[in-house]
Design goal:
about 190 residues, alpha/beta, about 10% strand, elongated
């Protein structure tokens, strides 16, 4: 008898998987609470390296069904998503994606749809990276200083505290700035 599992993933601790679980139940899938795996991990982490996903794989067997709300819950790039679905398919597990109309990704139509959408998503991600790099290069060419602004007078103040024999923690407390800032200026020479 086939069992239904749900894999819900968010990228940051500020997010919740509650909406994904509600969406799966609203689509008519009856998933028992113990068969819902929810985890907080970046989508750039391959599914094979995710603790929650590995737990899911250990519990599932041939004939079971895995539900995800969106393709990107399985991975961010086409290769990872494809490999994950192929691995599940090879063990007899069907994968349904609600965002694709609930299509079974292990079927012929599902495989084609998934590959086209994964390729488009990866293309969009690559374009975003290209645009970001172009913007950084343009800013550099215009002479703009990138990164965190330098704290004014910090190196001199830190060096004075260091010369007075204060520790880094004591220096941070005296100057009212973060320990990370103190560490950045600790071995610089005062100009």
């Amino acid at each position: 008898m086939s069992r239904t599992f749900a894999y819900c993933r968010v990228s940051t601790i500020d997010q919740t998987t509650d909406n994904q679980i509600l969406e799966i139940r609203a689509a008519g899938f009856d998933v028992q609470a113990q068969r819902v795996i929810a985890e907080t991990v970046s989508g750039s982490t391959q599914a094979s390296e995710r603790v929650g996903f590995q737990k899911l794989l250990d519990r599932m067997e041939a004939g079971d069904v895995l539900i995800v709300t969106k393709l990107d819950r399985l991975g961010r790039n086409a290769i990872d998503v494809r490999q994950t679905v192929e691995k599940l398919d090879s063990t007899g597990i069907r994968v349904h994606c609600l965002a694709l109309g609930g299509v079974d990704l292990t079927s012929a139509a599902g495989k084609m749809t998934m590959q086209v959408l994964s390729a488009v998503a990866e293309f969009e991600r690559d374009l975003l990276i290209e645009r970001t790099h172009a913007g950084i290069n343009r800013a550099k060419n215009e002479g703009k200083k990138l990164g965190r602004p330098e704290a004014v007078g910090t190196t001199k103040d830190v060096q004075e505290c260091k010369a007075d024999g204060l520790s880094q923690n004591q220096t941070a407390e005296r100057l009212g700035i973060s320990l990370a800032t103190i560490k950045r200026h600790w071995n610089k020479s005062a100009a």
